[in-house]
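Entry: LysE family transporter
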Amino acid sequence: MQFSLWLALAGAGVLVSFTPGAGAINTMSNSLNAGFRRSIWGILGQQAALVVHVLIVALGVGVLVASSPVAFNVIRYAGAAYLVYLGIRQFLSKPTAQQEQAAALRNEPTWSIFRRGFWVNLLNPKAIVFFLAFTPQFIRPDQPLFTQYAVLTATIVAIDILVMWFFFAAAARSFQRFTSTEQGQTVLSRVFGVLFVGVGILLALIH
């Protein structure tokens, strides 16, 4: 990949990563509930789903999903339902004392944080359609495809990790003081619950 083309790819990747969405909300929620350091597991889960999306597009399955209304809608509504489920669970969660919360977070498997991030990103067919339109701009058919897709994927993943962890997860830390009281925990849980539900509804309604 030419350096000028890679710079364009990096610039587009930064814009995409800074665009608020389900991944950003999930990252901020993890940072608040599990801590800044442990939120990286949710971010890595989101990147694993991103790699799957690129593989789907690279293998041509993205064309099938984009051209099949049934397949697209099934995945789209499944993703929307999962986000709404996360939102309702977050909204209804009860505040806990700081000591109890800290103990619970220490015992929470990192795999559950990773898995949640994975499904939040994977169950978003619009990402497949986006990459279906996005990747051809930076891929030259006359050049080795594997190397180009590897560079594209590594670039997008690296940028997204940096933006998610050092911007969205770090920004959530400023709200950490609210979690020291039951009232603050309730407010934050309801705010992020509403955000998750809102994103899920938008995913289901916007075409």
